[in-house]
Design brief:
single chain, 368 residues, alpha/beta, Isopropylmalate Dehydrogenase, 2 domains, ten-stranded mixed sheet, two-stranded antiparallel ribbon, 12 helices, 20% strand
């Protein structure tokens, strides 16, 4: 029996609470013959309190050796005054950098039972299932020079540099096309070729990769601002959207709120495929933050964290039947009315974090 190595990094705030519910799910699969080996370590503010750094060298070594990393959430007012280089968020940035996690996958799924929780009309979002593929390690967030300069006349000039290389666009395009083949076989590539040279370059490169390697997949090009408009007009026209770091940041947040709550949304960050094993370094995390205002109160919605584990089943371990079963269990629990406060229907009594985890385990049992 193959053993899958998972590193759990619960982090701060509600991170440990939602991670405990994932451990219940892992335990359920383990009892049914799926080989999981788990380790737990510190990250974020918890790591800073223990080690004076947002992630220790030992934890980084464990991350490098793991088949997948499950990451909770980091940060909180307690650490607002710590030095910039060791702030809680630096632990996540280091993981992304040193694991080479260039592809950020953010699904936006609207379960039928939650269609009324969205700010858009039910018919616009019910059954929504799209995937944003965001390039994560290049673009304007990382390009140099990046500076604020004081000029001779005393005024200032700020510079951020939008920079992409051929291999960066090629590899993110391949991830998007590969995903589309497993979904509804359509990719929408978003950029601003009408006003940006990097947009022209992006479109040319995606078009070339499509023609040479993925001509069986439908490809459309869309200007990023129009893509934003279309996401709130009729989002179900999209399947996979691939875009750069800046536009991906914006478009994925728009897509996130179509579903009604950040507490519902998982994500994956993937590295390059190992030529020898075919495996990728991978980190899975909920989109939500550490929510220190509700930490320790049992109010947090664990579904985004559990869904992140579901993405690990699918993309890191190739356990497609198990991933489908977990997705079905989540949908059935929501349909039953079992919901935390953030997604509870008016006039209903919300349940706690542990109740949701227990309900999903019970539904997994029923489905098996």
């Amino acid at each position: 029996m193959a053993t899958h190595k998972l590193l759990l990094l619960p982090g701060d705030g509600i991170g440990p609470e939602v991670m405990r519910e994932v451990e219940k799910i892992v335990g359920w699969f383990r009892k049914r013959g799926v080989g999981f080996e788990t380790e737990t370590d510190l990250v974020g503010g918890a790591a800073y309190d223990a080690h004076g750094a947002s992630i220790s060298e030992a934890a980084m070594d464990r991350a490098q050796q793991a088949d997948a990393v499950l990451f909770g959430a980091v940060g909180g007012a307690k650490w607002d005054s710590v030095p910039y280089a060791v702030r809680p968020e630096a632990g996540l940035l280091r993981l992304r950098k040193e694991l080479g996690l260039f592809a950020n996958l953010r699904p936006a799924i609207c379960y039928p039972a939650l269609a009324d929780a969205s700010s858009l009309k039910r018919e616009v979002v019910e059954g929504l299932d799209i995937m944003i593929v965001r390039e994560l390690t290049g673009g304007v967030y990382f390009g140099e020079p990046k500076e604020i300069v004081t000029l001779e006349d005393g005024s200032q000039r700020a510079i951020d540099t939008q920079l992409y290389h051929t291999h960066e666009v090629e590899r993110i395009a391949r991830v998007a096309f590969d995903l589309a083949r497993k979904r509804r076989n359509k990719v929408s590539s978003a950029e601003k070729m009408n006003v940006m040279k990097t947009g022209v370059f992006w479109r040319q490169t995606v078009t070339r990769i499509h023609k040479a390697e993925f001509s069986d997949v439908e490809l459309e090009h869309v200007l990023a601002d129009n893509c934003a408009m279309q996401l709130v007009r009729w989002p179900k026209q999209f399947d996979v959207i691939v875009t750069d770091n800046l536009f991906g940041d914006i478009l994925s947040d728009i897509a996130a709120m179509l579903t009604g709550s950040l507490g519902m949304l998982p994500s994956a960050s993937l590295g390059a495929e190992d030529p020898a094993t075919g495996q990728r370094k991978a980190l899975y995390e909920p989109v939500h933050g550490s929510a220190p205002d509700i930490a320790g109160k049992g109010l947090a919605n664990p579904i985004a964290m559990i869904g992140s584990f579901g993405m690990a089943l699918r993309y890191s371990f190739g356990l497609l039947d198990e991933a489908d079963r977990l997705d079905k269990a989540i949908a059935n629990v929501l349909a039953s009315g079992t919901r935390t406060k953030d997604i509870a229907a008016p006039g209903t009594n919300p349940v706690g974090t542990q109740d949701v985890g227990d309900a999903i385990v019970k539904e997994l049992e029923a489905l098996s």
